[in-house]
Amino acid sequence: GVAPGARMLDLPCGTGRHAVAWAARGFRVTGADRSAAYLALARERAEARGVAVELVRSDMRELVRPESFEVALNLFTSLGYFR
Of 8, 15, 10, which is closest to residue 46 (Cα–Cα)? Predict the structure, then answer.
């Protein structure tokens, strides 16, 4: 029920597979990951698709953003890293 144009947070975004796909569908995506190598691949993927994705290098447990998001994604098993 969230329309394109909504702000979306993908963390950890890894190589940007999902972040780029959502950006291509018109969402304003912020992806965060602590791996510089993964973020470089995500940047390449976004450029290849011609979409804008804000990519932030940060541990997902420490990311602080003053703005809010309509959607927050945490796919697969990433939450298993929390105690």
Answer: 15
Q: What is the rounded average pLDDT of the residues 57-69?
A: 87
Determine the pLDDT at residue 18: 95
- What 3-state class would DSSP assign to 27? coil
Reply yes or no: is the peptide bond before residue 4 cis, omega within 30 of 0.
Answer: no
SS3 at position 66: coil
Element (H, E) at 8: strand 7-10
Backbone phi, then psi, for 32, in 5-degree steps?
Answer: -125, 140
* In the predicted structure, residue 19 carries a pLDDT above the cut 70: yes
CA 5 distance to own-chain centroid: 15
Q: Cα separation of 29 and 24, whole Å? A: 10
Task: Identify the helix (H) or strand (E) that includes residue 23.
Answer: helix 17-24
